[in-house]
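REVIEWER CHECKLIST
Item 1: Sequence provided? yes
Item 2: Single chain? yes
Item 3: Sequence as submitted:
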Amino acid sequence: MASINSRNNKLYIDFRYFGKRCREQTLLTDTKANRKRLANFIEKMEAEIKLGSFEYEKHFPQSKKLAEFKALELIRASNSHDDANINFEKFSRIWLEEMKPQWRPSQIQNVEDIFRIYLYPKFGMLPINTISKAMIMTFRGQLVKNGNNGRALSASRINHIMTPLRMLLVEASDRYEFESPWKNIKPLSEPKSKVSPFTLDEVVLILNTVRKDFKAYYTVRFFTGMRTGEIDGLPWRNIDFERRQIIIDQAIVNGVVGPTKTAGSNRIVQMNQLVYDALLEQRERTQPLSDFVFCTKAGTPLNHRNVTKRVWYPLLRYLGLEKRNPYQTRHTAATLWLAAGESPEWIASQLGHSSTKMLFTVYSRYVPNLTRQDGSAFDKVLENYNIS
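Item 4: Structure as written out by the authors:
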């Protein structure tokens, strides 16, 4: 039941819509006549809400809640009649609103960009149930041939573009009961991610040469295996010097602090002595300035693109080292731990992997060269036996 209240002698309505509390200010002064006028409005409004015909924008065009309720009204309209002829763009906007609670902000932005740049121009006005497998294959073929306005796209990027298209069409076919066109469409083969870790000698060279204000940053990267978003979004409250632990429970992506890559990425990372000393030194530099361990002079989080462009790549060029992206610091930590004989289970937990499977799949080929565990140890055992 809606109520009429007053604030600063102006009337406002307090009511619920889609189960959410709404308080909308009016320009009416608090008089008996205006309260009666507003009561008549509320009576009509509640009738429309009950009938499912209420439109928030029509009655409160300046409301801050407008975007939220506009999406919900679209969903309601879609569910009120199973119309398989709904066009691709309209259904996608409904579906995206439904999916947002499941996704991180960076993922939402990425998927919305895919629809805007690639999918709407191709499928936007088509009825959702008229999109065929042939159309999908033609679309993917054009991405392979022409890329994005002539700029080549990797197989991985094309697969990322196709994923929300597949999810959308499967959901639409299930909801509107038509046959999904997504049948036996396999993703493009992707080359294995390039893993090019640094040697321990190269790590030492980098840390002894890097700018002083970034030495602690790269020390932590090389010896904890933290992802870029995790270290750039690392707050001081997650540093436990007493237990020598780093708590990973958030990351920063595109300037927005949010959850880590996966639920399994939340973890506790152990500090070795170098990391511990580096963080003690960093505490003197930035803790009075910012909530973030690593930050700009203004106390804001680091922008990884700026750091990579202005610090990381120039340093590698100066040292004459092969150009490698900063993610290789994570690969380096893994291979150095393996080379040192650390338990694979412990390494997996440090990296936030749910099992050791990925560890051996990705890094096994580097272990023999680093540890000399290449069969020669077993040869030495056999030397003690006379086999004729």
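Item 5: Key structural point noted by reviewer: The chain has a mean pLDDT of 87.
Item 6: Recommendation: ____
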